[in-house]
Amino acid sequence: MTRLFSRFVLKISLLFILASPAVASAQEMLVIAHRGASGERPEHTLAAYERAIDQGADYIEPDLVVTQDLHLVARHENELSDTTDVGEREEFADRRRTKTIDGTMVSGWFAEDFTLAELRTLRAKERLPGVRPANARFDGLYPVPTFAEIVKLVRAKQAETGRTIGLYPELKHPTFLLQEAGIDSVDLLVTALRDAGLDDAEDAVFVQSFEVAPLRRLNQLIDARLVLLATPGKGPADEPALRYEDMLSPSGLAEVTSYADAVGADLRLLLNPDGTPTGLIEAAQAAGLEVHAWTVRKENVFLPKPLRSSGGEAARGNVEALIGLLDAAGVDGYFTDDPAVAIKLREQ
C-alpha cells in the first residue's frame, strides 16, 4: 500500500480526467444505493431511498429484518439501538435483551421483539454521527419503513421518472430468526415479492444473503436473481465449516452457480493492496456470475490510505479513484453510500 498503489491510483485518476473510454465504461457498472443515499440521510429511511432514486441510482438496497407480528422492515441489523431512538424510550426499557446472533453475543433491543405498531413509534437516527454529523440533523424525523412502503415508493418514482428502479433487498440473519424466533423471513420475502409481481428473472430485483441455505430455498421458490455476499476471513453463519475464500475458489464458484446469479464481494476480495485485481472478478464472471463490489464511500475513514485527503476521518477523499479501480478491474456493479458521485461521473 505504498508507492506502487499510489502510482496505480494516479494512473486511474488521470484516465478519468483525460480518457472518455474510462467514463463510458463506468456507465456500464450498476450503481446500487447502499441503504439509500446513506452518505446524506440516515440509512434505511424513505428519505434516503428517495434521495438515491432522485440522484439516479439503478437500485436501492434495503436490509430486511422482521417484527414480532411478521412484517418485513428495513434496518441494518435486527438490533435497533444504533439506528433508532429505542434506547431513549422508557416505555421499552424492559425489552432490552442479550442474544447470541451468528456466534456473537449482542445486547440491545431487537426488531423481532416488537410489533409493527410499536416499532412505528420509534424514529431513525444516524448510525455514524462522528463521521456524518450533517446526517444527524435529521435524527428523529423518520419512522422505520416497511418493505411494502419501499416497494410503493419505487413504484411511485418509476411512474414519476419513467425509468426502471431496481430493488436489492438483503435478508439479515435468516437462520437465526428461523431457529431462535420461529420466523421464516425467506417465506415472508417470497410472499412479498410474489404479491408485488417482482419474483421473475427479468424483474429489476436482486436478493442477497451471506447464508447458503436461504439462497438455496429462494432459488427453488422464485426466479429473481440471487446474490451470495462474501467477506474475507469469515464464512456463512449456517455453514460454519466453510470460508468465503474457499467458496470463491474456481471449484467453489461452480457450486455457487447452482443457487446464485452473482457474488456481492467485499472490496478486499476484489483488489490487492496495490490496487490490482485479485483474479476473483475474472474467475466469477467466467463461471457465469456477476460481481458486485461493496462498499464505496467518500469519507477518508473508509478509503485506502493513498486515496485519503487531509482533514481527518470524516473528510472527503478521492472516491472517484476507487471507482476507477473497480472499473478497471471489470466489476458489474458496486454498492455505494454516495450515488450522486457515481451519477456525476456518468454525466461527465
From TrEMBL:
Top-level taxon: Bacteria
Signal sequence range: 1-26
Keywords linked to the UniProt accession: Glycerol metabolism, Hydrolase, Signal
Catalytic activity: a sn-glycero-3-phosphodiester + H2O = an alcohol + sn-glycerol 3-phosphate + H(+)
Entry keyword annotation includes Nucleotidyltransferase: no
Chain ranges of the GP-PDE domain: 29-346
Keyword Hydrolase recorded: yes
A Pfam family: GDPD
GO molecular function: glycerophosphodiester phosphodiesterase activity
Any single biological process term in GO: lipid metabolic process
EC code: 3.1.4.46
Family the entry assigns: Belongs to the glycerophosphoryl diester phosphodiesterase family.
Name of the protein described by the UniProt record: glycerophosphodiester phosphodiesterase
Organism: Qipengyuania vulgaris
